[in-house]
Amino acid sequence: MSPYAQAAGDPADRVVAFLNTLDVEDGIDDLESVASYAAWSGRDQTRSTLDQARRLRDQLRARAAGAPSVDAVTIRVDVVLDDEVALRGETVAAEIAIAVARLSIEGRLGRVKICPAGDCRWAFYDHSRNQSRQWCSMQVCGNRAKVRQHRERSAAPTHG
Predict the structure, then answer these.
(1) N- to C-terminal Cα distance for the chain?
(2) At what angle do helices 34-41 and 47-64 cross, to 10 degrees?
(3) What is the pTM of this model?
(4) Which helix H or strand E contains 113, and what residues bound it?
(5) For the segment 46-79, what is each residue's pLDDT rounded down to a tens digit?
(6) Do 87 and 98 touch, CB atoms closer than 8 A?
(7) Euclidean distance between CA atoms 142 and 14, whole angstroms
(8) Residue (of 61, 68, 80) closest to 124 by Cα position
(9) Which residues are within 8 A (CB) of 89 and not within 5 positions of it... i.e. 6 or more apart?
(10) Is the distance from CB of 89 to CB of 78 less than 8 angstroms?
(11) What is the distance between the alpha carbons of residues 140 and 115, in angstroms, rounded to a whole number?
């Protein structure tokens, strides 16, 4: 089962999995080539669908990292009017766009965040009650930041 298929269910899981196709720490980009994108998604891909996915991921990562505004990405999403209204997309990027729309409507898109650690940049979903989680992992990235801040304070000259 592909990583994309494993993230089915909660739209937040799909969006986070998509954002994490770029692994800064290990230097792996699942959207590096048509073949790597096909392996990640479990579907045939083309240069066009790869380019669309890259644009969407880049803008979503910027948004999740706190950018005040990002560029629009044009993606076709069909509105199906049967017994119930449904959104459908023919591409993985369209499915991700639908998941993003659902999270936004539900007021949960702001919980999708990017770890601020420069050597990490991992996407995560903030499950905290007050949406204050900053790090992907407090035990790893959060601890490193606290140690770094402590060292900087300890090394700072004191005036007296």
Answers:
(1) 63
(2) 70
(3) 0.85
(4) strand 112-114
(5) 999 999 999 999 999 999 999 988 999 999 999 9
(6) yes
(7) 24
(8) 61
(9) 75, 76, 77, 78, 95, 97, 98
(10) yes
(11) 11
Rounded Cα distance between 22 and 20, Å, is 5
User: What is the CB neighbour count within 10 angstroms for residue 89?
Assistant: 16
Alpha helices of the chain — where are they, by DSSP H?
Answer: 3-6, 11-19, 34-41, 47-64, 92-105, 143-155
What domains are defined for the chain?
3-155 (1.10.3300)
* pLDDT on residue 119: 86
Integer CA distances (angstroms), 127 to 22, 59, 66, 88, 114, in order: 22, 22, 17, 27, 14
Q: Which residues pair with 29 in a beta bridge?
A: 22
pLDDT for the residue 154:
75
